[in-house]
Design goal:
With about 120 residues, the chain is mainly α. The chain has one domain. Helices cover about 80% and strands about 0% of the residues. This is DUF423 domain-containing protein.
Length: about 120
């Protein structure tokens, strides 16, 4: 699990850095309406990925749904923020409905995180 946690910490760090970079770009790029939400999603979920990974590793979340929720947060954030960022800079998204798919995955992952907390073994 330690290697997995380290990988998720790296992903969270990359999300955080990208979120700050997009926030800076949003302040300087004209008509950057998509970059603010992309930045917010990256920054909010960087912390969530860190917390979910570490809570799962510490046994405070049930392992299987905890890991599934963590990976759902990673994938959902990447889809949502990646699609908005590509639309802003390239003019097209990842694929049709990528941002809404990412958003729905994020909602589901948060709910799964709640379930993982409810199912966590008692100490």
């Amino acid at each position: 699990m330690a290697v997995l946690s380290r990988s998720l910490i790296v992903v969270a760090g990359l999300f955080g850095a990208a979120g700050v970079a997009l926030a800076a770009a949003a302040a300087h790029v004209p008509d950057a309406g998509r970059l603010g939400p992309a930045s917010s999603m990256l920054l909010f979920h960087a912390s969530a990925v860190l917390a979910a990974a570490l809570l799962t590793e510490r046994g405070l979340l049930h392992r299987i749904p905890g890991l599934a929720a963590t990976f759902g947060l990673v994938l959902g954030t990447a889809l949502f923020a990646g699609d908005l960022t590509l639309r802003q800079f390239v003019g097209h998204g990842l694929f049709p409905m990528a941002a809404p798919t990412g958003g729905m995955l994020l909602i589901g992952s948060w709910l799964l995180l709640a379930i993982a907390g409810a199912l966590a073994p008692r100490r």
